[in-house]
Write a structure and sequence with these properties.
mainly beta
């Protein structure tokens, strides 16, 4: 087993890469959604102005001598080459600069050696052997001491903001193991359909830890059977680190963290995920969150699938906890958790668009659960989810939940709110359909929508064909403000549309 103890040379300075910018855009869009243009202005103000030393040679005075101009051009070209880029007019591969791609033979030891070398060189682009299986039998023995105190400062700040966190037991470094060297610098791994797997008899370890300042780009690879006693069954992106995961499958991985989770991935930094699949991953700790993925940082996710993942606490597929997340064009199917079988947003800001949430199960919020959070839903299909308690399709508690241009259909709750259950929340339903949902318990009411101690507003929407055991079957409201515009239809619900609601509902009859 190779153990690298040599000097870690600092990575050469370079331009901010595309995933860093994407993370900033996610945060900017979510803040703008909640606070208007002020958030966008803040993001723009954060950009660093170029210095005089970095100005291009064309900024020289017209009367400068040609020798001076050439000296400046030579200086700029040398600086660009030191950064790993190419002179203007000779672009390299996107995000790769002039670095040659290093082929990694089909040998786990060679993969470890290549990553050790990549860190020593300040970064690298690696290409795995096509269709190869790299089997890891032991955790890589490496001191993880390069965070410069950022992690300690982060945990101290979290404890100050959330005093209850200070009561948690200190982290045990033995629980935070990885099978591959820690990522400290910009490293790209192109999988070529390769598999990285933890041996079934091996000790617990994840595959990748991306440390402060590290940048991992991972594509076209399958990660199987990761197991971590801490967060992130396969990948952990720490605060101050970044990762891009493209066309990657994560299967059969587990986090045993008591309070954390992320069976597949735990992100506390910047994460971009696209075209990837999360299958049969688990957050199995006492209060495990995010069976497929737990986000506590800034994340953008698109065109990905979450199937058959589970969490003990919430977010069977995806949990966003104290983070900012944007999800687009993805599918969450047949996931399970105590709350939010498909997706959970807790103390967070989440935006989900053009996404299917289908066939998930939970005690509360069979498809989606939102608590003390803002979740913006647009263009969703929330179908055939089941809650053993309240909110067959969607549950929100002390949150803001706009639901636009969406369909909530065929969901079932054994409590109340077959389609949507809202408590102490501001629920806005616009241009959406809440149809054929069921509240089937002996005392269940609000087959379509149940709202209490908050506000519910319906605009240009349809609540139809829903069924409850106790009337009404359409919309039930108790101690809540209700607004229904005259473009909304509440019809054909059983046993009644709104009769039985404890608050009168305008534009609703029977």
């Amino acid at each position: 087993m190779t153990t690298y103890q040599g000097d870690r040379r600092a990575a050469p300075p370079g331009r901010r890469s595309r995933w860093f910018l994407a993370g900033g855009l996610v945060a900017g869009s979510l803040v703008a959604g909640a606070a208007g243009l002020a958030g966008v202005a803040a993001v723009a103000a954060d950009r660093v102005a170029p210095t005089a030393a970095d100005a291009p040679s064309m900024a020289l005075r017209a009367d400068d001598q040609s020798g001076e101009r050439q000296a400046v051009e030579d200086r700029d070209q040398a600086r660009e080459e030191r950064r790993g880029g190419k002179p203007e007019g000779h672009p390299g591969r996107r995000g790769q600069g002039q670095r040659p791609e290093v082929a990694v033979p089909c040998d786990s030891a060679k993969l470890i050696s290549a990553l050790v070398r990549a860190n020593a060189d300040g970064g690298a682009d690696l290409r795995l052997a096509s269709k190869c299986t790299y089997e890891l039998t032991h955790a890589f023995q490496q001191p993880d001491d390069y965070d410069g105190g950022i992690r300690d400062a982060r945990e101290a700040a979290d404890s100050a903001e959330n005093p209850g966190d200070a009561e948690a037991p200190p982290r045990d470094p033995r629980h935070d193991r990885a099978g591959l060297p820690v990522i400290y610098h910009p490293i790209a791994i192109r999988g070529e359909g390769a598999t990285i797997v933890r041996d079934v008899h091996a000790e617990a370890f994840r595959f990748f830890t991306v440390r402060d300042g590290g940048e991992l780009t991972l594509s076209d690879v399958l990660l199987r059977n990761g197991l971590s006693a801490a967060e992130g069954g396969s990948i952990h992106v720490v605060h101050g680190a970044s990762a891009v995961v493209e066309r990657t499958t994560i299967v059969g991985s587990t986090s045993l963290s008591a309070e954390g989770g992320g069976g597949g991935i735990f992100n506390d930094g910047h994460l971009v995920v696209s075209g990837s699949t999360f299958v049969d991953n688990h957050a199995a700790g006492t209060a495990g969150k995010g069976g497929g993925l737990l986000n506590g940082g800034v994340m953008s996710l698109q065109t990905s699938q979450f199937r058959s993942n589970s969490a003990v606490a919430y977010g069977g597929g995806l949990a966003n906890y104290r983070g900012a997340a944007e999800v687009r064009s993805s599918t969450f199917a047949h996931n399970n958790a105590a709350q939010g079988g498909g997706v959970a947003s807790f103390s967070a800001r989440t935006r989900v668009a053009d996404t299917k949430v289908v066939g998930n199960t939970a005690q509360t919020g069979g498809g989606i659960a939102n608590s003390d959070a803002l979740i913006f839903l647009r263009g969703l299909e929330v179908r055939d989810n089941t809650a053993t308690g309240n909110g067959g399709g969607i549950s929100t508690f002390q949150g803001l939940l706009p639901l636009d241009d969406s369909v909530v259909s065929g969901n079932t709750a054994r409590g109340s709110g077959g389609g949507i259950h809202a408590q102490k929340s501001n629920l806005l339903v616009r241009r959406s359909e809440v149809e054929r949902n069921h509240a089937v318990g002996a005392k269940s009411t609000g087959g379509g929508i149940f709202a209490t101690l908050g506000q519910v507003s319906l605009y240009s929407s349809r609540v139809a064909g829903n069924v409850a055991t106790v009337k009404p079957g359409g919309l039930f409201a108790d101690k809540a403000r209700v607004k229904v515009d005259d473009e909304t239809d509440i019809i054909d619900n059983e046993p009644t549309n709104c009769e039985g609601s404890r608050v009168p509902v305008a534009n609703c009859f029977r």
